[in-house]
Design the sequence.
């Protein structure tokens, strides 16, 4: 029995076979796993047993202290010795000694002084809660550890026998089910290698190896068939050699045809092997440059020296096989110098050819003269640029809209007006960019349907707080099979304001005649009224001799008469009549000033000095002091240092500026709620035609209906008795008639007002 086992083990460890490798591998894996599990299990058991031993020993020798308490109390040291002798009989207690509290030794017992203690336990001895001594015990677990080592050896020996048995059984099974079938397969492979194709194959035990054997059988059959095919292919190859010779003959014929085509084509053909300076041109390429075939040598340098300097870099890259796409193609436009000295445009299309290792080695290209095409394109670009410049130079807002209501055209004027650049506008929906003109989409649709222009007159909108009026025309334009609507949007706000000024001038002209007649008719009786009131006041004076003389004749007291007049407030009534008469006289004087012809003499003046004087007069005006403290208004001067002298009547310009400042101050005084931080900004600016003066305030402003009528005579928004309505109309007359200038106002409700006065250059 021992001999077969030894032979099996010899084969197992000496035979270099698959079954040996698998057996050893499986056994080694099992051994490692079982060994690790055994060691882990043994370690757990060992520590658990040691822990229990330590705990039981501690409890046992703790009870020893309680047992010794009574003999020590009775000073019965013989009993103490007997007790510790009995306790020392344990195989773990190597030394026990009992001491008094002061350290005096009472009793001691040692089993073996050479054994090293693993643990020492000390316990105090008490009797009736009185400390009477201490017992110290040295413990050794050597016997326990020795016993555990013997158990470990037995455990490992058992595991070794078990693993050896597993190894032998595994080897026998692998030899039966793996080694023998593989040996049979190896024999079959050797037969195939020598060219022998057996007709019968052994039936193997395992399904997988049997499947491999069947595959080898099929492979042998396929190899046999392949040999027959190779024989047939060899026969066919000889036939192909004969056909190839025929193809080579046809290739020579094709080359002749290509040469004829190259000679007759309108394009030049180039062929170059990379790394060589020689270029193979067709004569046609040289003809395109005005040369004969003999006038130009076939060298790369000859070609490159005629290329335009701006195109030389990219043409050099083309010739060197650089910057080609993934397919090895390139298309390039460049200029080459003609024999007549003019540069001609060429379109080069080249293909790079690679060898078997995918390395480029050759370039073949075709070059076409596209000079005429480029000239046409340049003219088209020039025309397109001219049209673009025309559209961008137009003062109108030009927008192109497709049927899908997306923007395709956006000129510079609307770009400046909206702040939206062309690239951000194109492709966006029209209503998204200009939401206030969304209603135009229905008109655009109608224009597409009818193919006729549509006019949308006088559309009013608010832009930056200012009322703006637009005149819009929609033109449908055909572009191929599609339609585009072109919107021309004109800002007619200034034109409408000009029309208002013309209407205002006509009103002023028609009213001036009526005002002049009324002034003359009223002035005479008004003079009589004022003179009569003045005479009545003089007749009651106590200082005039005629009054005193008449009073004495009538036996009257002038003091009593004056006292009566004061008690009855007659003098106040007379003062009121006089004041109203003077006010009426002032109104008539303004009307006459408004109606009379101008004989004003214009002299060169410094407009900044006139403005400063007008501000000083406004600050000292009586009415301004009673209604608005002018010093509380912040005056901001923004004067242009380049402003030249003006030809004007300084007193009249002061009157105009004073009226504007008074109106601004009164507007601040009447504003509800009160304007915080009121300010007036006075700006001067040199223009091409003269000087522009701007007076802007942050007051309550005015509505559109008030703005249109503000220069009309006798039109006022002040309460009755606070104004005549002639201040701004007289100012309008002074600027437009006497100085050939313009005055206008821009205002909105609760957004302040801005008056703009334009005066011509100095003489």
Sequence:
């Amino acid at each position: 029995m021992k001999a077969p086992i030894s032979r099996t083990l010899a084969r197992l460890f000496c035979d270099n076979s698959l079954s040996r490798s698998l057996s050893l591998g499986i056994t080694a894996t099992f051994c490692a796993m079982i060994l690790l599990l055994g060691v882990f299990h043994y370690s757990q058991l060992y520590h658990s047993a040691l822990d229990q031993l330590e705990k039981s020993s501690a409890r046992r020798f703790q009870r020893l202290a309680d047992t010794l308490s009574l003999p020590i109390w009775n000073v019965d040291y013989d009993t103490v010795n007997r007790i510790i002798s009995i306790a020392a009989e344990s195989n773990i207690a190597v030394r026990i000694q009992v001491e008094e509290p002061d350290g005096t030794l009472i009793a001691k017992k040692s089993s073996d002084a050479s054994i090293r203690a693993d643990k020492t336990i000390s316990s105090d001895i008490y009797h009736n809660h009185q400390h009477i001594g201490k017992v110290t015990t040295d413990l050794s677990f050597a016997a326990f550890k020795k016993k555990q080592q013997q158990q470990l050896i037995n455990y490992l020996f058992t595991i070794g026998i078990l693993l050896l048995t597993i190894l032998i059984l595994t080897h026998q099974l692998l030899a039966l089910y793996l080694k023998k079938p593989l040996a049979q397969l190896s024999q079959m492979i050797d037969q195939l290698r020598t060219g022998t194709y057996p007709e019968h194959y052994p039936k193997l035990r395992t399904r997988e190896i049997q499947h491999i054997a069947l595959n080898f059988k099929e492979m042998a059959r396929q190899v046999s068939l392949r040999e027959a095919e190779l024989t047939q292919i060899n026969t066919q190859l000889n036939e192909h050699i004969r056909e190839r010779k025929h193809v080579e003959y046809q290739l020579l014929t094709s080359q002749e045809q290509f040469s004829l085509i190259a000679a007759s084509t309108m394009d030049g053909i180039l062929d170059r092997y990379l790394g060589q300076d020689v270029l193979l041109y067709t004569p046609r390429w040289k003809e395109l440059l005005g040369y004969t075939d003999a006038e130009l040598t076939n060298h790369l340098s000859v070609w490159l020296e005629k290329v335009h300097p701006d195109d030389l870099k990219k043409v050099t890259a083309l010739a060197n096989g650089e910057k080609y796409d993934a397919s090895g193609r390139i298309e390039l436009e460049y200029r080459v110098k003609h024999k007549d000295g003019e540069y001609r445009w060429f379109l080069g299309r080249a293909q790079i050819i690679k060898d078997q290792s995918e390395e480029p080695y050759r370039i073949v290209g075709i070059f076409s003269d596209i000079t005429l095409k480029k000239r046409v394109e340049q003219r088209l670009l020039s025309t397109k640029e001219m049209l673009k410049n025309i559209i961008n130079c137009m003062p109108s807002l030009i927008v192109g809209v497709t049927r899908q209501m997306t923007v395709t055209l956006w000129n510079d004027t609307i770009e400046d007006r909206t702040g939206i650049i062309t690239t951000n506008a194109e492709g966006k929906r029209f209503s998204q960019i200009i939401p206030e003109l969304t209603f135009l989409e229905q008109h655009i649709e109608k224009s597409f349907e009818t193919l006729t222009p549509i006019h949308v007159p006088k559309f009013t909108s608010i832009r930056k707080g200012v009322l703006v009026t637009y005149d819009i025309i929609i033109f449908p334009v055909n572009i191929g099979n599609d339609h585009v609507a072109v919107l021309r949007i004109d800002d007619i706000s200034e034109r409408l304001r000009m029309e208002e000024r013309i209407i205002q001038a006509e009103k002023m002209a028609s009213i001036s005649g009526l005002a002049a007649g009324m002034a003359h008719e009223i002035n005479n009786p008004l003079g009589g009224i004022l003179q009569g009131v003045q005479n009545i006041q003089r007749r009651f004076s106590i200082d005039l001799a005629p009054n005193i003389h008449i009073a004495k004749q009538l036996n009257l007291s002038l003091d009593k008469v004056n006292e009566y007049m004061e008690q009855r407030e007659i003098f106040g009534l007379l003062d009121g009549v006089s004041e109203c008469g003077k006010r009426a006289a002032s109104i008539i004087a303004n009307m006459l000033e408004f109606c009379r012809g101008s004989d004003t003499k214009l002299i060169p003046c410094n407009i900044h000095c006139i403005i400063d004087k007008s501000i000083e007069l406004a600050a000292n005006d009586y009415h301004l002091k009673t209604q608005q403290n002018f010093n509380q208004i912040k005056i901001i001067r923004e004067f242009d240092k380049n402003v030249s002298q003006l030809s004007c009547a300084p007193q009249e310009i002061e009157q105009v500026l004073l009226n504007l400042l008074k109106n601004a101050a009164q507007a601040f005084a009447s504003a509800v709620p009160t304007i915080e931080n009121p300010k007036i900004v006075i700006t001067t600016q040199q223009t091409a035609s003269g000087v522009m003066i701007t007076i802007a305030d942050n007051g309550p402003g005015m509505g559109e209906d008030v703005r249109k009528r503000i220069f009309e005579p006798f039109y006022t928004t002040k309460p009755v008795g606070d104004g005549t309505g002639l201040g701004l109309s007289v100012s309008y007359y002074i600027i437009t008639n006497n100085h050939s200038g313009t005055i206008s106002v821009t205002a909105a409700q609760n957004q302040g007002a801005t008056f703009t006065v334009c005066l011509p250059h100095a003489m």
Notes: The chain has 22 helices and 21 strands.
